[in-house]
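Why this split exists: single-chain examples teach little about how molecules sit against one another. For that reason, every record in the complexes split bundles all components of an assembly together and asks for one structure covering all of them. Below is a record exactly as it appears in the raw files.
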Amino acid sequence: MGSAIIVQGLGRQFRRYYLDRPWTLQEAVQRGLRRMAPVERFWALREVSFSVAPGRALGVVGPNGAGKSTLLRLLGGVGRPDEGTIEVHGRLGALLELGAGFHPDLTGRENLFINGLISGLTRREVATRLESILAFAELQDFIDNPLRTYSSGMQMRLAFAVAIHTDSEIFLIDEVLAVGDLSFKRKCLERIAQLKREGCTMVLVSHNPTTIREFCDEAIWLQAGRIVAHGAPDVVVGQYAANAAR
Amino acid sequence: MQTRITQDNLRRLIYVRDLLRELVVRDMKLRYKRSVLGIAWSILNPLAQLLVFGFVFRFILPVKIPNYSSFLFCGVLAWNWFSSSLLLSTGAIVDNRDLIKRPGFPAAILPTVRVTSDLVHFLLALPVLLVFLMLDGIRLSSMILALPIVIALEFTLILALAYFVSTIHVIFRDTQYLLGVLLHLLFFLTPVFYDVHSIPTRYQALFLFNPMMRVIDGYRAILIRGEFPVRVWLLILGAVAGVLLTFGYRTFSRASYHFVEEL
């Protein structure tokens, strides 16, 4: 049995531009095409290697700007590594950028279909899961109202419900567990725990040490694009917390 | 293993088709949600243009072209699709940041969505054009069966250009504005309200590089003159559109690795 995710020597370079970089052709021409080129390139991720066995959960901690979201996106195939390789074996589901494609003027049902398709389901697959998604989101009574009449918590519930009905084998989760009210939040956490028991692999970014301790089998600590520590969640989270406190 | 691969491919195919359909429907719903006239706009807009151009070129600057109204209608519909699709698809990437950041979302579908929803408008207006032609005393021939060829060529051409402009718009955010100016000028350099044959010979070369000239003339050949468009031009147009599409798609794909950081 191989790994579900294998990342080897991963590096991703970003370009940093002048603060007053021209964003229009008109400005660019006026300045004789100067200040267009990047000031410098910097590594958002460098020499990152790890693997995740099927059914295991990896936690990722680190300060803002450490490269956590970039890592998740690269795992999801958004952008390309400049160095190293990423192998992902299994159908990927993402609990990040939830609610992409939502539009306030469309009804809940219309948005549900679009969001389901954007999450990788075919029309028929969305249709067969419709009841189950609605039941989970607890939105049956409002589903034909326009989305703009929903509270932000209700919108998140809809988005989350779609995302966990994608039959994925691997989930990328980015700090979305702050969904809705307390009871719905508990329901989400339970659902994620259930998915894990069913054998789903997970990569979970969170600032909440409890979440990492509770769900993850191991953890990595990212700092300025590099892995500082990799090991048991308790140990890594402890090290990270101790470092942050200093 | 073999069957697994073909099955995956088939599922992917169904998926992309479903996604395209859903996004096109969303696009059209949103465009008409707040307007009372709704979908009728796609017909009223060219009719209004027709009225004004017809008035100007019949009574003020008379143009000697038989069935001028029909002639004009063909040109206006084809040109409108071209220019509004290009303008709309310019923002396809910048206006959809949240989709671009979604893992697994095929970014290349975004320009296609906009061009396709304008194709639907074009097809909705087509019956109106046909009725108009018949009222104008034109007898439609079986040549009309060749219409899909010209439509497919125009679609390919627009899509190819859409990949370029939507990529450029990520770097220069005034592309849409500049393109608007450019299209406005190009409108006069395209035989929309005049005929290809009325261009003096010494200026013909100037028009050689305007693919829309051949597209519009293709529509007119089929619908008004009842003949098959000049084959050589169709072939050249097809080749140009094909090469542009390949090149445009490649440029788009290469740039798409950086879309997220530029948005």
